[in-house]
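User: Please predict the structure of the protein below. I'd like the answer in structure-token form so I can feed it into my own downstream comparison script.

Assistant: Understood. Taking the following sequence of 200 residues as input:
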Amino acid sequence: MELDFFFFFGSTHSYLSVMRIEELAAGAGILVNWRPFSVRALMREQGNTFHTISPRTAYMWRDIERRAAEHDLPFSRPPIWPTDPDQLANRVGIVAASEGWCPAYAKASFRSWYLDGTELGDLASLSAVLRELGKTPEDIIAKANSEAVRANYDSETDVARKLGVFGVPTFAVGREIFWGDDRLEQALAWAGGTHPAQRR
């Protein structure tokens, strides 16, 4: 009854899952393990590039707008993207996951990025998010920049790599993976043992 949630701060579709997964998992009685990792590293390795101006990009924003409306999530305009070039927001996510406040941090970060128009990883906006959560920004950012947390971030990326993850959000139940926010409900069903494919 556990689900690993692999996501990336800076992933456009991860916004939808970050804002939905807690309530859905609680309703299904599923424990969620929040696992930020570097999807950028995997995409580079796999030759999976995503241009910022293309028909695919235009479709992506429209798809997110439609899905946000479907799930009653706010969406006013595309956020700054790409963002967080040093992946600092993600490394803070590693600290938050290890200390048990990753869900609150992730939701606050995506709200700041998507709704307030701030840039992920920017020291001022990141510090504001951390203060909102009652954290001391200087202490958390120092941890995020430490060799230990950088190594942990690389380790989480390696776990995703070995599972065959290629994009985010990805949900994993053991070695069974589900890619995309539109697979969240299926992943929860699998974690709960109620997915139709498990009865075959």
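That's the full token string. The two ends are 20 Å apart (CA to CA).
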